[in-house]
Amino acid sequence: MVNAAGGAPTGTQAIERALAVLFVLASGGELAIGEIADRTGLTAGTASRIARALAIEGMIRRNPATDRYHLGPRSVALGRAAERVLGLDKALPELRKLGESTCESVNLAAREGDESVVLLRVQSTLPLRFEQYVGARFPLYSTASGKAMLAFGEAGDDYVSGLPTTLEPIAPGTLATRSQLARQLEQIRERGYAIDIEENVEGVRCVGAPVLDDEGVARAAVVLQAPAVRMRKERIEELGPAVVATAREISHVIPDPAALRAQG
């Protein structure tokens, strides 16, 4: 990106580039400069300059053994501060309670555009589990979290109408058509929670419930994940009310649920 005169990037563009590097490291773990460049669309030289500047400020660090970069201590501090401001530190104990009572993994997710983004995660202690990380992003239509937020969100119908008639398959169980999604959203509104039967990840089934604000609008979602072998239909029906109850408790402890939703 250059300014109108074709010169150096403007201040805003420089910030956008630095944020892009931080975001790819948040989602990709430890990356080489070439990988950062590929994922951000920057040149290797630009990515390298930004990485060095961020490293000086402690936002990222270079692993001297691999010459790869990962998030640094100041990024951790910034994330912890955001958790406190948004009330996520108060939501985490509720997720842990659900995880301990079910022995399964639990997420808190929020909507960003057309994606569901993991904000908090409590990992199952069982050997057979689905590994995931905070910051992971998935399509709304293929996830229990996304469908829960669509069913109780402000612009769920607009999102659905904007989808192609045939949906892009993400996993073997992904809903095939836009009309199937619309029907499922009606069912979610009736029972209060969404399900994902290997729609986003093969072998993983999920139950998700919306975190509602005072006006009944979904600003986030609680999701319980389990391997398909442990998540039969009967167990899904048993766990649905528990996930709904946890989402309700979280809506009470988060000061401003609307702040969790970055954009519609």
UniProtKB/TrEMBL annotation:
It holds the Pfam family HTH_IclR. The keyword Zinc does not apply. Keywords: DNA-binding, Transcription, Transcription regulation. SMART domains: HTH_ICLR (SM00346). The keyword Repeat does not apply. One of its GO terms (biological process) is negative regulation of DNA-templated transcription. GO terms for molecular function: DNA binding; DNA-binding transcription factor activity. Residues 12-73 form the HTH iclR-type domain. This is IclR family transcriptional regulator. It comes from Flexivirga aerilata. The lineage of its organism: Bacteria, Bacillati, Actinomycetota, Actinomycetes, Micrococcales.
